[in-house]
Amino acid sequence: MARMTMHVLTRKASRSKSRLSPLSPKRIELKVPMCCEGCEENVRGELTLLEGVKEIDIDVTTQKVIVLSHYDVHLEPCVVLNAVKKVKHRAELWRN
């Protein structure tokens, strides 16, 4: 009886693993006060130092920074925000 139960549990566990979706890239949006290309370069420089950053999109006119992470890395918004705050102290998470 114990063998049968173990086999059933193993089969159920393998089915549940196959249903898990692959990790999607995390999109983190920040509002960062920037006035020039120098500001943009400083922000981009700090973000490129973070592990797991896949793409950085910076728009100086709207003062919006979008960071995309790799699929296999869980990048926390607070980590990204703290990195940007090293060069731009008034940075904050973008609110919709």
From TrEMBL:
Signal peptide: none annotated. Pfam families: HMA. It comes from the Eukaryota. Residues 9-18 have a biased composition (Basic residues). SUPFAM superfamilies: HMA, heavy metal-associated domain (SSF55008). GO terms for molecular function: metal ion binding. Residues 1-20 are annotated as: Disordered. InterPro entries: HMA_dom, HMA_dom_sf. Residues 25-92 form the HMA domain. Keywords: Metal-binding. The keyword Iron-sulfur does not apply. This is HMA domain-containing protein.
